[in-house]
From TrEMBL:
Domain HTH araC/xylS-type: 186-296
Protein name: Transcriptional regulator, AraC family
PANTHER family: ARAC-FAMILY TRANSCRIPTIONAL REGULATOR, TRANSCRIPTIONAL REGULATORY PROTEIN
Keyword Transcription in annotation: yes
Entry's Gene Ontology molecular function annotations: DNA-binding transcription factor activity; sequence-specific DNA binding
SUPFAM superfamilies named among the record's database cross-references: Homeodomain-like (SSF46689)
One family name in Pfam for this protein: HTH_18
Keywords per UniProt: DNA-binding, Transcription, Transcription regulation
Length: 297
């Protein structure tokens, strides 16, 4: 995982003072500052900070186990849980990005509650020319406020980040779950998804997830497994097992593609007692062995 300090050191050869001062950190840049002639290669990695990037130019984004092609321009939201990197396709490289820590929004809500920062969403939104200009104006306001002496400028900057969040969220239809009123099924599903995601990312071969079956999650949440299964199915239209499987597969593909761990180490970290059990699980869901998947990279 790349820390905020490492980001500054690698790209600008300096680390701002008081970067971890307890009140959170925020900064905004143009793409030119980041990928100029002296820029170092972009590494596929997780970060310990949030980032919102306005991309202008053809680009290929490697996000978790997916690859997303940007034909013209897009806004891209990234969080500390999912690794990613950019691959510029042509000579045009322009745009903006802002970086901030979770503590920057302390008392202002939980960023992970926003759909664009959830791990099961592809947080890339292609933009029209009109949308591009609107979002450019937000970044320009960020730069102006950050350079000002206004005593409450960071409150304004938080509002501008929220403006980007809501601008993107309004570009897509509200999901079925969001339209429903809060109820017991939503609450138990939210707790299940939070508990599932809390086990990731896996960043050390000695790390091991604790819960891998619906009954294990139900026991941890102190509900009957049938109740958990009904609630999850009602809200997500997927079974509990399907969601667990999808998340395990996503992490498995990340570890196979972007680490040098052997299959036994990956199997252990994902909670499988034997490497053969992991092999069977992966082959059943991907129609190929883990080693075959790794060789395809």
């Amino acid at each position: 995982m790349q820390s905020l300090e490492e980001f500054y050191q690698s790209k600008f050869d300096r680390v701002p003072e008081n970067i971890r001062n307890g009140v959170g950190h925020f900064n905004v840049f143009t793409i030119d500052e980041y990928i100029g002639k002296n820029a170092k290669p972009l590494v596929y990695s997780r970060k310990d900070y949030f980032k919102i990037t306005l991309i202008v130019g053809r680009n290929r984004i490697h996000y978790a186990d997916k690859v997303i092609d940007i034909q013209k321009q897009a806004i891209f939201f990234t969080n500390p849980q999912i690794p990613y990197k950019f691959e510029w396709i042509d000579g045009q490289k322009a745009g903006f990005f802002c970086v901030f820590t979770p503590s920057f929004f302390h008392h202002f809500g939980n960023l992970n509650d926003y759909e664009v920062f959830k791990p099961d969403v592809i947080p890339v939104f292609e933009l029209t020319d009109e949308q591009l200009e609107n979002i450019k104006q937000v970044y320009t306001k960020m730069q102006t406020e950050l350079a000002s002496d206004y005593a409450h400028k960071y409150d304004l900057l938080r509002n501008l980040v929220f403006e980007l969040l809501h601008y993107a969220l309004k570009m897509k239809p509200t999901s079925k779950a969001e339209k429903q009123q809060a109820n017991a099924s939503q609450r138990i599903t939210h707790l299940f998804l939070e508990l599932l995601e809390r086990q990731f990312p896996i960043e050390d071969a000695r790390q091991r997830i604790n819960f891998r079956s619906p009954s294990e999650f139900a026991g941890q949440l102190s509900v009957h497994v049938n109740h958990l299964n009904r609630a999850v199915k009602e809200i997500t239209e997927k079974t509990t097992s399907e969601i667990i499987t999808e998340r395990l597969l996503q992490e498995a593909k990340i570890l196979l593609r972007h680490t040098e761990w052997n299959v036994a180490e990956i199997a252990y970290s994902l909670g499988f007692k034997e490497a053969t059990h992991f092999n069977n699980f992966f082959k059943k869901n991907m129609q190929m062995t883990p080693m075959r998947f790794r060789e395809m990279e």
